[in-house]
Amino acid sequence: MSSDHSAREHGTEAGPDAADRSALAADLAALNLAIHQPSDPALFTRVPAPAMLPFHWRAAELEACLARIGEVLRLEPGGVRRTLRLTNPGLAFGTTPTLWASIQYILPGETASAHRHAASALRFIMKGEGASTTVGAETHAMNAGDLVLTPSWAFHDHVHRGEAPMVWLDVLDVSLVRSFDAVFFEASGVAERPVSAVPDRGFREHGSGIMAPPGEAPVANPVLLYPWRQAEAAILVAAALPPDSLRDTFLEYRNPASGGPALPTIGTALQRLRPGAELGAFRQTGSSVAYVVRGEGTSWIGGLRFDWGPGDFIAIPSWAAQRHANRSAVEDAWLFHASDAPALRSLGLWRETPCDTAEAGQ
Ligand code: GTQ
Ligand code: FE2
After folding, report:
1. What are the distances in angstroms from CA 264 to CA 127, 209, 219, 251, 331?
2. CATH number of the domain to which 173 belongs
3. How many domains does the chain have?
4. CA of 156 to the centre of ligand 2 (A)
């Protein structure tokens, strides 16, 4: 094959056959067929080129909007939730190309009635007490800092019997499931699903993370609740190790029976940046959302600088150079992360690499 031919094949040159080529393309189009045209956008980019933008949502703005949706929107039966979605300015919908992050707001006495969907979900509790969620036939109270899972196709409802509004982060793999055309949804006939006689068996058997009943390990993750006090204790134990230069102390929530991720598609992690921490820059495939549990820090993502504080959210695109620092010399900064890393890992698409500080931004 001549080099001339191959240059045209790759669209670097219009070539003398432009008229033939467009006539061919027109005939093919009538048959729903196509050839590469020099004007086509590049099929492959050397590295990922996300449409998603790095973005920062501030707690003060979110709180004002939550109060407003609490006044204007009523919770009706049928399974629709009262949520504030974090929409990415680079995308038609969603927070990242795979994930939807929303803040759910439930008032005292309300019920978010039962439904199920193919999309997996997680809740990370931001504020409030007195709500509980039923997932399958298990029920768990939701308290600040807890992570609660809603695996794919499990019925779930949320009931709030507390005194003050309840606020939590929802992350669902909606756009990932949509890209596979694997969307299913079903409302339940009842607002609240029946609960088994032992409403928290999986947690009682496997929730310590270090011990379990004898016999074969269950295939599905037996743990739906990852209480804050256990996650916090795990981080504080790990924090005595020499800090990792890119992530300081960073632990993933795992399925204790398999050692794999807590959910098959959505990665979850808790990170502590020690006082004064200034971490190195890196890139990784896949997108993520970070929630600031406490502390004040700065992240540089794809050349943009975000100064964050408690209750803020940050969205990080695939392969964007990122680095993070704790702005305080005395206080810790803690971040909860949700990502699509397990989906990339199971498809063989996971990559990460350290990079120069300047690539993230200064
Ligand atoms: O609580 O079941 O943010 O189904 C989006 C879809 C929450 C939920 C969301 C949902 C839910
Ligand atoms: Fe749901």
Report:
1. 27, 18, 12, 17, 34
2. 2.60.120.10
3. 2
4. 6
